Amino acid sequence: MPGAGPSNSGKSPPRPPPLPPPHNVAAHEITQLVRRVQHRLSRESTFSALAENLINREYGLLARTDAVLRDRQIQYEEGVQVEGLMQQFEGEMQELRLRIRALVDEKSDICIRLDKAESTTHCLSEKVVELEKCNLLLDGKNKDLVSEREYMLAQLSEMRYRNDELTKEKEELESVLQKPLLETYHRKPTFNFPWKVCRHGRQILYEEADADTGSSNPAPSKKQSTSPGCVFPVRSIVPVGSSSSSSSSDDDLDAGCDLHLFTGFLASLGGNHGSSPH
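RESULT FIELD:
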């Protein structure tokens, strides 16, 4: 029997659209690829069964052809029909072989791309884990920075409050320093103070010098005059409870009972020298 070429009646199915590059394959596309591979495998098994069936039919036709050739009484029309069927089966078999080969190549390509997609997914998962660790570290650093900022703001508010208190205290001290001295201290040029009350760190007792005031008290004897006395200018006398810019030990004065003595001293001055000029 002469060999027949592929039949024109059979048309090859359209090729599937090309797949995207492996580095852009997503997870859902991987699932679709697996499903397509499974579908291709099922179709391949179907095509294999069909090819086996066609081969069996071909063998049957060959047997029938042999029987026809042996039988001289078969009509010519039946031989022509059998020849046409054989040519059709040969074309279908050739087409099936080509489709099976294409399916095998496509299956190998899909397996390669599936392996690449799995490796890419693994790398992306590792990167996601690393990014989560970095995010946790950044959250910890952010919390530390926020707590440090709150601590610094608290210190700043405390320093501002302390600065305000120091400013108020400074204003109070300046107001005290700017007050005028009492007029009582300007009546006499100097005062003579006994040495027993003129010691460092204590408010001195005020006594008027007899030589300067001209009072009726007797002048001190030689024995009394040998004991040293303290003479202070009027402006150096500091009243109890006040402050002066010329004295650095005003905060250390013990003024528990000196106010009463100073008041009595002023009263004695007023009684003894009521007619003295101010």
